Amino acid sequence: MNSLMRKILLRRSVYSFSANLLREEDLMAILEEGKQLSNVSNNQAWHFTAIQNKVVMKRFAELNAYFVMKNGTDNSVVTSRNIGKIIDNISTLLVISGNGDLKYTEDAANTLFGSMMLAADNYGVKSCWLGTRESLMAENEVATAELLQVPDGYTPLCVGGFGYPIDDSDIKITYLDSAIKIIR
C-alpha cells in the first residue's frame, strides 16, 4: 500500500487535543502547503486565518452556534450544544476564506481543507473539519469576517481545527464494505 493511501485510510477527525499550541514551524509548514493549492477561480489566492487566541475562538463559537441551532442541523458533528466545547479542545482554529464565485470557491476551500488535513499528519498534527460557510458561518458572515480580520472581497468558507493529539495509538485502518458500481 502506498504512503498516500495509508495516510488517507488512517486519517481520523480528532476532537480532543493536547493543550499545547502548535509549534510555529509546524503551523507555518501546514499553511505553506495550503498556499500552494489553488482554488478553481483562475489560481486566485486564499486567505488563511489561524486562531490560537481562546477569547477569539469563544467569540467565533458564539457568533456561529446560533445559526446551527436555528436551522436545526443537528445531523452534523458540530451543533449549537457542542461547538463551544469542541473549540475549547482545539489549539488552532483554521478558517479558509476565498474570493470570487462562492459556488465553486466554497467547494474548493473544503477540498483544500481536506488536503491540509492530510498534510498536517506529516508533522504529527491531527485535525477535524467543523463546517462550511453555508452550514456554520453564513448567518453572521459579516461579523465573523470582522472578528477574523478577513480582507475585503474575501468570504470565510470553511473552518476546522488542528492540534496535537492526546493519544492516537489506537487508530487502525478500517475497511468499509462500500458498494461500487461502474457504468460503461
Radius of gyration: 17 Å
Shape: globular
Mean pLDDT, all residues: 76
SSE order, one letter for each helix or strand: HHEHHEHEHHE
Q: Got a strand count?
A: 4
Order of neighbouring strands in the sheet with most strands: 1-2-4-3
Q: Given the helix and strand composition, which structural class is it? A: alpha+beta
Report the helical percentage: 40-55%
Strand content: 15-25%
* Low-confidence sequence ranges: 67-78
Distance between the termini: 28 Å
* Largest pleated sheet: 4 strands, antiparallel
Count of discrete alpha- or pi-helical segments spanning 4 or more residues: 7
Q: Quick summary of this structure?
A:
With 184 residues, this protein is an alpha+beta fold. It has helices spanning 3-10, 24-35, 54-70, 83-88, 102-120, 133-137, 141-147, and strands at residues 47-51, 92-98, 126-132, 155-163.
Write the layout of secondary structure elements.
Layout: H1 3-10, H2 24-35, E1 47-51, H3 54-70, H4 83-88, E2 92-98, H5 102-120, E3 126-132, H6 133-137, H7 141-147, E4 155-163
Antiparallel strand pairs: 1-2, 2-4, 3-4
Helix pairs in contact: 2-5
